[in-house]
Design a protein that fits this description.
The chain is α/β, with parallel strands linked by helices. It has helices spanning 16-27, 34-47, 55-64, 88-97, 101-112, 127-131, 145-158, 165-181, 203-218; strands spanning 5-9, 30-33, 67-70, 73-76, 79-80, 120-124, 137-142, 194-197. The chain has one domain: 3-Layer(aba) Sandwich (Rossmann fold). The chain is globular, with a radius of gyration of 17 Å. The structure holds cytidine-5'-diphosphate (2 copies). One cytidine-5'-diphosphate is lined by residues 12-13, 16, 34-35, 38-39, 91, 94-95, 98, 124-126, 175, 179. One cytidine-5'-diphosphate (CDP) binds next to helix 1, helix 7 and helix 9. Its EC number is 2.7.4.25. Residues 6-213 form the Cytidylate kinase domain.
């Protein structure tokens, strides 16, 4: 029997990572942060002096990516880059390399390999459309751009980083526009995905809703 997958897609700072991780913990499932793979690819390329628009060069980097996920920590070639990959600069780089078809192809099987028993919760932009189209539960998580920019701002301030709300809003809107407009695996709400609008919904309530859909699905 195929390993069950819960696919959670949505725009930047909609809460995908937080909610997907908690749903995975509640169910004892594995968790895939697919955005981290694009972020790692962008970081690895820039460390090797490869431009983010060099499709063949970046795809080679993605193929060879030496990455290890260990709980909250992410290692690139043995180096703990957990904080570094969360910067908005790397987020912008991730969305640039993610628009390149060869880069997406290079990361496809690596993502599918996360689907292991007893199940997987995967978050990103194309989990339900491309990577796990057979997922029995698909969720499209969203919130207004204002709320999402505010969340990202608070997250950066909480980490002791400098943050400018206007710059974050502009970056986030540009990144969302690029993710929605690209020709390959664009961000969109699938007809078979449940919509979860979280502008006025707390984390616990959002997690509860996904678990309710999951249990209703399995019933
Ligand atoms: O993974 P994604 O970029 O979609 O978002 P995230 O990193 O999981 O969430 C961004 C921030 O929003 C985190 O600090 C969450 O704790 C917060 N959040 C929230 O305040 N309310 C929600 N319903 C969801 C997330
Ligand atoms: O945390 P946030 O939602 O801002 O971003 P992320 O999920 O870490 O993804 C960073 C970038 O990688 C996104 O802006 C997308 O361009 C790209 N991405 C993608 O194209 N497909 C995925 N499955 C996941 C991320």
């Amino acid at each position: 029997m195929a390993v069950p997958v819960i696919a959670i897609d949505g725009p930047s700072a909609s809460g995908k990572g937080t909610i997907a991780q908690r749903v995975a913990d509640a169910l004892g499932f594995h968790y895939l942060d697919s955005g981290a793979l694009y972020r790692l690819t962008a970081l690895a390329a820039s460390r090797q002096g490869i431009h983010w628009d060099d499709e063949h060069g970046v795809a080679a980097v993605a193929h060879a990516l030496d990455v290890r996920f260990a709980g909250e920590h992410i290692y690139l070639a043995g180096d703990d880059v957990s904080h570094m990959i969360r910067s908005e600069t790397i987020g912008v780089g991730a969305s640039q390399v993610a628009a390149l078809p060869l880069v997406r192809a290079a990361l496809l099987e690596r993502q599918r390999a996360f689907a292991q028993a007893p199940g997987l919760v995967a978050d990103g932009r194309d989990m339900g459309s491309v990577v796990f189209p057979q997922a029995p539960l698909k969720v499209f998580l969203t919130a207004t751009a204002e709320v999402r920019a505010e969340r990202r701002y608070k997250q950066l301030i909480g980490r002791g980083e400098n943050a400018d709300l206007a710059a974050i809003t502009a970056d986030l809107e540009a990144r969302d526009a690029r993710d929605r407009a690209r020709s390959v695996a664009p961000l969109r709400q699938l007809p078979d995905a449940h919509l979860l609008e979280t502008s006025a919904l707390g984390i616990e309530a959002a997690v509860g809703q996904v678990l309710q859909w999951w249990h209703a699905n399995a019933a």
